[in-house]
Structure formats: structure tokens, C-alpha cells
Here is the input.
Amino acid sequence: MAKKKGGRMISSAGLVTYYDSEDRRAITINPKTVFAATIGIAVFIYILNLLY
Here is the structure.
């Protein structure tokens, strides 16, 4: 029998395989930007709840 290459886990049953690859066309967002936007939206909703 031929040996299979690749270190896939047998327990995952091949349902999902993720590869860490970079795509030139992909949109990249800094994690700090996402965090700041989340805090900003939360504060905005909190202020709206106080006003209405």
C-alpha cells in the first residue's frame, strides 16, 4: 500500500480542511480595526438605548 502524504487528522473525517493561504485579491482587515468598530457600534447602540 502506498503511504498517504499530509498530516491530516483521521478523527476529523475529512469534513473540513483549512489551509492557511494568502490570496492577493482577498480583503484583509486588521484585527484592531474590527475590535475598534465593535466597541464603537456597542457604544452607539448604548447611547441610542439611553435616548429612546
Q: What stands out?
A: The chain is about 40% helix and 0% strand. The mean pLDDT is 78. The longest helix spans residues 31-51. Helices lie at 31-51.
